[in-house]
Amino acid sequence: MCFNEAINDAIGYWGKYSTAQLSKRRKWDPNHLFLDQDDFVEVVQAWDAIRNLYPPSPRFQNYVPANGTLPPNLRIYLSGLIDFARIQGKRPAICEIYSRGRAGALRDAFGGFHIAQYRDPLSQFGSFYKPLAEASETYFLVFPLMELGISGNHPLYLLIPETWRVPVLPWPADDAAQRWASTVKYLSLVTSPRMDTPEKLFRWHLFSWVFGNLAAISYSDFILDTDRLYDDHEYRNSVIDGLTPELGAPPDFNGLNKFSRYYEFEAFDTAIICNQVESITREALSSGQLDEAVRTLRPKPPTIPVARAVELLIKKIHASLASMEASAKRRRISVEDWKVIAEKNRRIWFRPGLRVIAQTVYPLAEPIVRAARRAGIWN
Description:
Radius of gyration: 21 Å
Strand content: 5-15%
Strand order of the largest sheet: 1-2
Largest sheet: 2 strands, parallel
């Protein structure tokens, strides 16, 4: 039973829907159209059994848990999901894009078999940019900012040079208005029409990709390159052979897809930023700071050496650059293109003064808006 993105602030919202209502929900999803049902369905099925265990604001709260130990409320909630699946006679699988930083803590809390998946970072950035350009969907681009900012005081993220860091904003579990204000601030950074914004967004994305995947790979049992899984039949066979003993049956990858979405931005040189991120990562590895930071993610040593994980990720960046260079379908985004898209997606509450007023009104307005959305009055 696959609980997809169960550590998600939206679960408390979608849990109030029936499975039938959820499947009819209007959505725009460029990456997951191959799924037969909404990816929240199985969590919704478990909602009545676990609603009292669901912690407030779990997505980024303790994204990198203190001392590598999973907080008790999150542990109790996930235990409830696991127990629910077993009662149904199924094996629980928790798929967590929001928990790369929690991989070591999750391993200690629950044991199990952990798979770290990663994909082409330049194409992934294209997948994050495409929803903004085509559907005014900002969340994919803002996710790396929130990961780096909300976890910004952790030793792993402090390795980023100060001039390139994301602002560290408050993210209290018990203050929804403050979380809203912080989210809006990050969104305003994503949709700034300044010429240097795409460069900042890409650099933040790449640091998030490297350090987040490093945290996951270091404490996983199996590493999965999803691009190679699609392109390389020999690699796919080796993955099937490697996973079959753990799963009890060979995995079926016939539905696998690959998204090659390359964008060149006039405002910056992609290769230069890749070299910057690689240089910072290698320097931190050579000094021992990177290994020390990764070891704070779990009380026990990494299952995969940090140096090996770094080489895998750097090699992937180089392969990504080569794929982008060879792609005949890559699209060029001019400075003016970016300005038009950014201006289109600016919101009135991005202004600091209005944001402060909205934050004050939030505790009164938010329940009304949420109830209206559930009733279908607003979408």
